[in-house]
Amino acid sequence: MKINGYELAIPEEKLDHILSAETQAIEMIDKNFSGYQALSEGDKKALTYLVRAARIVNDISLEQDHPLNLTLKKNLEKEAKNSTYAAKALKLFNSLNGVAGLNGLDPEPVQIFKGVGVLPGRNFYPQDLSVEEFHKILLKMLKSGKAAEVKKILSARSMVRRQGDELYAIDYTEYFASQFSQIANELELAAHYSSNHAFNDYLGWQAQALLQNNEDMDQLADKHWAVLQDTPLEFTLSRENYEDEMTGTVFENDELKSLLAEHGIEPVSKDMLGARVGIVNQKGTKLLLSFKEQMKQLASLMPYAEKYEQSVASGEDVKQTMVDVDLVTLQGDYAQCRGGITTAQNLPNNDKLSIKLGGGRRNVYHRQVRMSHDTERTKKMLAALVAPEFHQYFNPEAEHIFVIGHENGHSLGPNSSYQEALGVYKHIIEENKADVVSITFMPEYVKSGVISEQTLKEVYTTWIIRLFLKSKPQQIQPHRVGDLIHFNFLLEKGAIHFNSERKLEIDFLKLPKAMFEILRQTIEVQLSKDPKKAKAFIDKYSKWSDLHQYIANTLRSLGVKPYKDIRTYL
Ligand SMILES: [Zn+2]
User: What is the CA(151)–ligand 1 centre distance, in A?
Assistant: First the structure.
């Protein structure tokens, strides 16, 4: 079957399999949801405008992602009315939110249409632009006095096109002028109806930022967004730059790199836009804040605490808000489910002006994402790998508590100068540290009444089971290498073991001491500022044995659901 002259690349039977056996549904909230019903009439009305704004953001992200996305989607939708094959292809398109993308399992991206693949420069750059030509053009422009234009080309907020044998940049506020002005309208309408003053204030700043070619306006919008804590509604216009694989290549060209530095040009990868709309969950948010309250007390319990200053103590964490959110919709970058979907996100990122100027961050947790899981598969996994008496303690909601501890864990321990000194090992050591801080201090939250003894056992058990790996991790997967380190450490200390049937058993009494010991060794590595010590620690605890391979094989035999289907109702 052809759409706009492009042949579908996946046979219909294969699509059937992907959609039925390999796709996990993520249910957004609907009108019956109690948190929605509790909203004021004005806030309900505001939500409809925010959802409309978010849908426009989705179209923008489609245009940023691939030059053929919008046309092919439109025509797939047309064909889907008469053809089941096209309808299924459309579902996969919506899951990837684009014509192609990684699924998190296969090494090569999945392509819906023959010959329509992922472009390294997405649609931020001309699709026939190679890395070599890109560098050649930039060098030529820099040498012929066009540094100002090169600066715009390498900015996070421009689409780049050809002009003769050179390139030029179009700021997002121009390229997407009509969409941005529609979004601004919707945001202003939402602000008119919504009940919360601080939230309306932010919407006003955000609307203005969309209408002006001025990074300072983004900065002000970000600052007003980051302080939002007690609002009924949640709206985020996210700008993250992980997709663009073109801009960053300039650092690999020494001549270009030094010329850019000479001209004071700081290249930043292009922002893919995303939009999130939701309702702040009061109960979940209260839990987040009660964890935050413990931070100063935990700082004093850190190993070697007297040897370094922690960001908590210096007041850095004060500018951090955090909310738990029931999701109404995820659009744009958030909905490009290419191998995963975000369960929590802390913005703005370091490249943003508001952070450089000392603005705060806001951490938003996604309830509907974390609550969606494959219960059938979980049952099979527990039966295959975990001793029966521990099944009662496996609870996906307990993983959320671990994640809160992890996020807070980044604010404890030696500061970033120690972290950076470990070079290529810094991410593994730092992510390992945040995990270990979370679990090591979990009993403190029981002492202060934030969680119960039962929850503590659930956090321990769920976390340990989540250390099971589907394959041997690579160094570019710091979280997974960390998982392997914890797993091996706990095995060595006898806090976990596998019985004669190769099923996991946990010794809850041995766990606290073993955890503190990993934490102590991890902090020792950071304090050493020595990459060799980091490597030795990682090598020692990341061995892959028959047991790991047995677990990986078992997990893979249970099947996995790498694709997501975000179901939106409001
Ligand atoms: Zn982390």
Answer: 32
Distance from the alpha carbon of residue 431 to the mean position of ligand 1, in angstroms: 5
The two most distant CA atoms of the chain are separated, in Å, by 73
> Which of 271, 192, 206, 278 shows the shortest CA–CA distance to 235?
278
Which of 229, 185, 191, 146 is CA-nearest to residue 47? Answer: 191
**Where along the chain do its domains lie?**
1-24+68-118, 373-559
Question: Where residue 315 falls among pLDDT bands split at 50, 70, 90?
Answer: low
How close is the Cα of 458 to the center of ligand 1, in Å? Answer: 21
Interatomic CA distance for residues 436 and 450, integer angstroms: 19
**Cα 275 to averaged position of ligand 1 atoms, centre (Å):** 22
Cα(19) to centroid(ligand 1), Å? 31
Nearest to 432 by CA among 311, 520, 314, 336: 520
> Judging by beta carbons within 10 Å of its beta carbon (0-12, 13-18, 19+), is residue 244 exposed, middle or buried?
buried
What is the Cα–Cα distance from 46 to 196, expressed in whole angstroms?
Answer: 11
CA of 244 to the centre of ligand 1 (A): 22
CA count, 13 A, side-chain hemisphere, 531: 8
Note the pTM of the prediction, 2 decimals. Answer: 0.88
pLDDT score recorded for residue 318: 66
Spatial contact of 354 and 219, defined as CB atoms under 8 Å apart: yes
The tens digit of pLDDT for each residue in 354-408 reads 988 989 899 999 999 999 988 889 999 999 999 999 999 999 889 999 999 998 8
In the reported structure, the alpha carbon of residue 432 is separated from the centroid of ligand 1 by a whole-number distance in angstroms of: 8
Task: Return phi, psi of residue 44, to 5°.
Answer: -60, -40
Distance 405 CA to ligand 1 centre (A): 10
Q: 98 C-alpha to center of ligand 1: Å?
A: 28
How many angstroms separate the alpha carbon of residue 94 from the centre of ligand 1? 29
Give, in degrees to the nearest 5, the angle at Cα 113 between 110 and 115.
90
How many angstroms does the Cα of residue 410 sit away from the middle of ligand 1? 7
3-state helix, strand, coil in the chain (%, to 5): 55, 15, 30
Which residue matches tokens 């994640």? Answer: 403
Strand boundaries in 419-515, DSSP class E: 496-498, 504-506
Which class for 424: exposed (0-12), middle (13-18), buried (19 or more C-beta within 10 A)? Answer: exposed
Quote the ligand 1 centre to 286 CA distance (angstroms). Answer: 21
* CB burial readout 495-530, b (16+ within 10 A) else e: bbebeeeebbebeeeebbebbbbbbebbbebbbebe
- Ligand 1 centroid to Cα of residue 430, in Å, is 7
Residue 435 CA, ligand 1 centroid: distance in Å: 8
